[in-house]
Every structure is written in C-alpha cells, then in structure tokens.
C-alpha cells in the first residue's frame, strides 16, 4: 500500500469526543468502527453549526491515547478551540488515501497502513495519534485520508 510523505503545519481540531472500546482482537474491530461511524453521523447532523468557525471545508477525526484509553474526536480545523480539541503537531506524516464509505473497511485499511509503516525501511511511526480527513463520510464523495506521524529511521 503506497503512501506519500507530507509535512503538515500544526493544526487545532475542535469538536466532540468519545472513548473507544478496546477490540477483543485485531481481527474484530467492528465494535470500534460502529462507535466511530456513530460519531461521524453526529458530526454530519450538526455540520452547519460546527463549520461556522472552521478554517476550511474539511471535516476531521483524531484517534489519540490519553490516560491509557483510546479517544476519538470529530470536528473541524479552527484557530482557537472553545470546546474539546486536540492539537496535531507540525511535522512529517505518511498520507494514505482510501476510496471507501464503510467505516469497518476503513479501520481495516488503517491497520494495514500501520503495518506498511512497520515494514518501511525509511520511516517509523512517531506518535500515539493519527489525523483522519473524514469529509467523504460526511459528503458521500471523494476519498478518506489518514495522516500518520512519522520519523526517518
């Protein structure tokens, strides 16, 4: 699965979040995918409200670890965050794109993306978070994009 290396500026993603259930195994991530799909649906329902302060037309989700739990935040990119937020640090990221609207399939592809980086001779994963561009799950068009933080080996 090919990826493209991109340098991203610091980005502040603001919205609302939940704690994700821990999958029983890597082969059964469906429960986690259901929760993510539910939060994307909630974001879609209130998209007019959250886009008032947005810096662009995209919608984002961030997977991150905090207090030894996996969190999922959905929202938009903003200048300042009046609500729950996560700051994506500036740096190098591996960008993967998938043409899918199925959350479970997307989560399987994300797992494959991490596997691809684990096998890379040039790069390694450099953080315990990732940035998803979920605009296609809101609009029904385009590609799902994920950015994984990387460091040169």
UniProtKB/TrEMBL annotation:
SMART domains: AraC_E_bind. It holds the Pfam family Cass2. Residues 1-151 form the AraC effector-binding domain. It comes from the Bacteria. InterPro entries: AraC_E-bd, Cass2, Reg_factor_effector_dom_sf. Gene3D superfamilies: Regulatory factor, effector binding domain (3.20.80.10). This is AraC effector-binding domain-containing protein.
